[in-house]
Design a protein that fits this description.
With about 230 residues, this protein is α/β, with parallel strands linked by helices. It has one domain: Rossmann fold (3-Layer(aba) Sandwich), CATH 3.40.50. It is built from 10 helices and 7 strands. The protein has a 7-stranded mixed β-sheet with strand order 3-2-1-4-5-7-6, with helices on both faces. Helix 3 links the parallel strand 2 and strand 3. The radius of gyration is 17 Å and the shape is globular.
Amino acid sequence: MVAAACAPADGVILEIGSFKGKSTVGLATVAARYGLRPVVAVDPHTAPSVTDPNLGGKASSWDDFQAALRTAGVVAAVEVHRAFSHDLASGWSRPIRLLWIDGEHTYAGAKADLDQFRGHVAAGGIVALHDVLNTFAGPIRVFVEELLGSDDFGPAGVVGSIGWAQYLPGAGAVHRAGRQRLARRAGRLIPFMARLEHGKDLRGWTKLRYKLWRSLVPHGSIEPTEWVRALDRP
């Protein structure tokens, strides 16, 4: 939510993957509070998907999503697209201040979501991926390889299970050392996530090693003022 409010860039907040609307409500509340443009939320609200949360026997999260927006009073602050992200991307032309990726959590899915919209992120904007420290192979690999590994990004970090980086195309080299330190720690998790994605459980020493490497990735909470100081102003 801090990223949505404080990203030093113009543009819209684009949420890829809304599910039942919890993050949508948070983002829309920020947008309404600070006079930002409506949050663009895209999700087909279909099931099943290989990385969908459990719908409890329901065929879709659509009704729950709509109810969440109505209950929170943020319907007017959300531009809803009941579609796949690639459908929205085909005609997209708006600048993005926050690209929030929380769609399909496979590597192919997460990378496609980044690739489709990366060129529209405004300089100084934020790209954030959910579940980089949870048991999915996609978000952690895209975070390490595509964000931390590129000088198109500057300051970066992990808060909880959210990996974020500021988009500074061609100007992120001054932050390379910090990104590389984080990449070395977070990158150790990729083989474990790949193992889980292929249906192999983490057991015994393998599970203990995973927990150790995960604990060594800095991912504590951050004060808003501290987060704002960490960002560059293009």
